[in-house]
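Replying to the earlier thread about multi-chain prediction with a worked example.

Input:
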Amino acid sequence: MTATATATEAPTPTPDTGAVALPPAPEPRRRNVMLVGTLLVIAAGTMLTGGLLAAYFSAREITQAAGEAWPAEEILMVMPNATLFVAYLTLLMSSVTAQWAVSALSARDRRTMYVAVGLTLVLGLAFVNALSFSWAQLGMVAGADPFSTTVYALTVSHLLVVVAAHVALLVVGFRALGGQFSPRNREMVVSVAAFWHFTVAMGLVIWFSVWFLEGGP
Amino acid sequence: MTTAETASETSSSVGAGTEHETDASRPPAGLAGWFTTEDHKRIGRLYLGTALAFLVVGGVLGAVLGVERINSGLQVLTDDTFGQVYTLHGEVAVLLFLVPFFLGLATYLVPLQVGSPDIAFPRGSATAYWAYLVGGATLLAAYVANGGPGGGSQVGTDLYLLSLALVTVAFCVALVSILTTILTLRAPGMTLARTPLFTWSVLVGGGLTLLASPVLLAQLVELFIHHHFTGDFGGQESYARISWFWAVPQVYLLAVPAAGIAAEIVPVLTGSRLRDHRSGMAVIAALGILGFGAWSPPAAASADFLYVVVGLAAVLPALALVGVLGDTVRRGRFVRKAPLLLALGAVVHLVLGALAGAVQVVPGLQLRGTAWEAAQIHYTLYGAATLAAFAALWYWAPKIWGIDLGEVAGTAAFALTFWGAILLAAPDLVTGLVSEQRLQAGQFDDTGLVTVLNGASAVGGALAVLGVLVVVAELLRRARGRSAAGAAGAAANPWGGHTLEWATTSPPPSGNFAEPVAPVTSATPLAAEDAEDAETADREEVKR
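Result:
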């Protein structure tokens, strides 16, 4: 018997007492508060990325119009393209594991969900580590030239967003360990996964716009 | 009992409805209650009070700038300090007063207007308020420490940029909370097309501000990194990467809630209704879309064809608003009530601001950066938005604080603010045409005409500050009077309002509504005709 059929059924007398048993109340309308809030945050984050990239390309245009190199030759020489490629590939893989966590929850497989959340966090941390290593390799001094300033603005902002996503995923992980969430109650997990996907997308756009276009894969 | 019936009752005490709360759910008393509150009504009141305090600060700064301009021998500021006070005046007026005021109003009213018992993400909303307060206080401290554009202190200027970034993040968090409430927590039957016009203006203005604010944040991040590591702020060009937030076209986006407030108040106080609710929504949406300025931070954008088109087109929604509200007044009855005067005054100033903006974007006139630009901003943000803010205070004070603000004070606030803003801005329009004086640089022409115009503008500024003081004094007086009278509340629906916030007590109880809100069938669920229609339908159903 479906839930709808139950909800529309007429009252029936119970066999022992003869009292009328009312059908269960219909389920309240799903509000998706968390998901809508997350989508709004993602919209704002997209504009933040757009604003930072606009500043980056604006500075690039002005510098190149002045006949100067973008980026400076010494930065180009030490740009760790392979490390950066692996870093952002790692980030991309974390998007897969984040979605894996959602799928595991939908399949009531809590153990797999814990593994997927843990893997996502580890991959995210690996990206942070690789990015900081790349900064050290580059040896750029913030403020020394427009390239360094705008690249630090982009990557530090992205790093902060990644850290925020880590915090959100940690909360989800602890709540899951505490027995929360189910296939019907998974809005928070879906929302955090969506935010995680956004951080990955933001990273890929930065990788393409800065590291790929300027240094190659 | 339906919500409409509830509206006819008056609350007997400020805490009406809280009697049913258990001890565990009751918020802590006193200061602890305010610090830890997650109640959207308390958060909204905190926003409003703080924003009004910053308005006084901004008004005093404006008065100091006015005195400096009239060359009276009373000058106390150097050129550098003048530039700092000038930039601080703009930041306080827009980022610490105007935007937070509308956020506070929305935090308080939107859940009530959409029939929700609470706001979405109440902790986020509270966090946003405290971040705004800390950011605002830090901004003032940064200027005191000789920071800001043109400031001599590196730490102070770093602090200045960080505080602006914090305030911007606070706006985004607050907006996510408010917009999610509008999108997901509306009462049954309340489609987006049936949302009250103030809520609609918050959805449009807030949604687009949520998209524009991160662009300001991006600029601030880059300016901070550049300044922190080089010690060079970059001069007026760098400041332009911040001040676009309250210049054409973004200035119109900040005024969108003003249009919503006017569209909410005018029909109620004239005993009429908009001929078509959707026409009001369309006008507000057009004003918001034309006011979206996230693409305009680069100085070069002002030479764009798009910039000119948007600047000219912004006149159309402002005039359309006059048409929509004028038609409403014509079909109703004009009564001399303070909220109505303030709301209509706001619309007049919005049109003046839009006209000034249309002239300003004409490339050949070279009016950007002159006194004309200051006049355009004063018309739109002081004349229109602040008058609308005062109108909202007079109209919704019974709901927010359980007090009725006085008609005499309201009329005085209207006269001082309306004419003060006219006198503040109109001379600057002429000055912008005849003189090259750059306000931010603190350099003024001493020629006879410009000196007179600067003097007239200073008098207008003084009147405007008086208007602010009248508003604050009236609020404090009434609030104190209410405390002395034993916290008696106001009538639930003193104006005969049409929207759901008037269906509950003044102020509303915990949970906002004593009973679940009945399904909404129109944009004006409390209007008499709708109530009659509903009664007729009920009777027919009973007969069947």
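Confidence is low (pLDDT under 50) at residues 1-22 of chain B.

Feel free to reuse this layout for your own posts.
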